[in-house]
Automatic annotation (TrEMBL):
A Gene Ontology biological process term: phosphocreatine biosynthetic process
Organism the protein comes from: Oikopleura dioica
Gene3D superfamilies: ATP:guanido phosphotransferase, N-terminal domain, Glutamine synthetase/guanido kinase, catalytic domain
Name of the molecule in the record: creatine kinase
One Pfam family this sequence matches: ATP-gua_Ptrans
Limits of the Phosphagen kinase C-terminal domain: 155-407
Length: 426
């Protein structure tokens, strides 16, 4: 099987540039062209120079120079060392204006065994989240705000909720073995195919994947292209951040997407997280979306338990995911909102930040807006529950739309905007 993982690469990957191919085989990513040569399996005695690196990883290591030597001899029960966790941060210097985390977890135990490293990274990324803090979890739709976001239906184009889940007792995607990833696909897909009602659907492995007996060559290229065009499917890893993290190994084996018949509920399998769960629809019906989302996670967990598994979760970190930025709820409640007048303000993003929100352009992180349309979502993940974050999103977007309407009517909103803050009750 020299043309298929784990011993080889399929034709679809061989058609890509060599620097991507190097991250899709069985070995750790080692690419001199991209200066990505730190190897967890053969770590140096001392950490490479990080003076030109911009990331929460680099900040933490510069503040604690002895940390690498202190942790490098430790290994989790599943075989993860600190090198697996920090390779992506060492290999990628980052951007001075866009601070990434620069670290991933290789398994659930990583966050505990390497807590002297992860705790300060998590605190820096999540606004001072303390090492002994408790994270609340609340998936009860009855606790959602009843405030209508967009009563006119004029401003919100689509709304979505998304989160991740991981399966306890397994390694996370950066360190998964070929066989382990296939077992994860098996048990996750079994759970998904048990979903009923409006969640009922089918699983489609990536084109070329040979891991799923029901579709031995994966989905068709046409199906894959259609899903990607609509923004509903991930593509092969095409950044050194992902390749260095280890998430590209054995591509495209045991990766795919489940969707329901209405195509408003999706689960990505074995990409950056073992599961990325997305519920979406046109308009502003975030309560409906959240109900679908909560029912799905409950249904998946039920079958996992029957198979002897469960989700990774603890009272300190909430739902355990690959990137520390997604710990806690891992939840992003977002809407594509047309607010050309309000978003034209020079302090638009700063006002949103005060309200616990963030804005992305129409093409994702750090992209520009198109015609005053922005993807507005909750900024936090950790320290507040799912329903709290969705309520911050509901109240905040409803307020922004009211301000947009006031501007359309020629009303001055400066006094109100000056008082912008996180809703007191959340």
């Amino acid at each position: 099987m020299s043309d298929y993982p784990p011993t080889g690469l399929p034709a679809s990957i061989k058609a890509l540039p060599e620097w991507i191919q190097l991250g899709c085989g069985d070995a750790e990513y080692n690419c001199a062209e991209k200066e990505a040569t730190f190897i967890a399996g053969n770590m140096p005695a001392k950490l490479p120079d990080l003076s030109n690196h911009t990331s929460f990883f680099a900040d933490t290591m510069r503040a604690n120079p002895e940390l690498f030597e202190k942790l490098k001899s430790k290994t989790t029960k599943l075989g993860v060392n600190i090198g697996h966790c920090i390779k992506t941060g060492v290999d990628n210097k980052g951007h001075p204006m866009i601070k990434t985390v620069g670290a991933v977890a290789g398994d659930e135990e990583s966050y505990e065994l390497f807590k002297e490293f992860f705790d300060p990274v998590i605190s820096a990324r999540h606004n001072g989240y303390a090492p002994d803090a408790k994270h609340p979890t609340d998936m009860n739709p009855a606790n959602l705000s009843t405030t209508p976001i967009d009563p006119t239906g004029k401003y919100v184009l689509t709304t979505r909720c998304r989160t991740g889940r991981s399966v306890r007792g397994t390694r996370l995607p950066p360190c998964s073995s070929f066989e382990e990833r296939r077992e994860l696909e098996r048990v996750i897909v079994k759970a998904l195919l048990n979903l009923e009602g409006d969640l009922k659907g089918d699983y489609f492995p990536l084109h070329g994947s040979q891991s799923y007996a029901a579709k031995p060559t994966g989905m068709t290229e046409e199906k894959e292209e259609s899903l990607r065009k609509n923004g509903n499917l991930f593509q092969e890893p095409d950044s050194t951040l992902l390749l260095s993290s280890g998430c590209g190994r054995h591509w495209p084996d045991a990766r795919g997407i489940y969707h329901n018949e209405a195509e408003n509920f999706f689960v990505w399998v074995n990409e950056e997280d073992q599961m990325r769960i997305v519920s979406m629809q046109k308009g502003a019906s975030v309560v409906e979306i959240f109900k679908r989302f909560a029912a799905a996670t409950e249904g998946i967990q039920k079958v996992l338990k029957q198979e002897g598994y469960d989700f990774m979760h603890n009272e300190h970190l909430g739902w355990v995911l690959t990137c520390p930025s997604n710990l806690g709820t891992g939840l992003r409640a977002g809407a594509m909102v047309q607010v050309p007048k309000f978003s034209a303000r020079s302090d638009f993003k700063q006002v949103l930040a005060k309200m616990g929100l963030q804005a992305r352009g129409t093409a994702g992180v750090d992209s520009a807006s198109t015609g005053g349309t922005w993807d507005i979502s909750n900024a936090d993940r950790l320290g507040k529950s799912e329903t709290q974050l969705v309520n911050i999103f509901i109240e905040g977007v409803a307020q922004i739309i009211r301000w947009e309407q006031a501007l359309e009517a020629g009303t001055d909103i400066e006094a109100e905007v000056a008082k912008a803050a996180l809703p007191a009750k959340f």
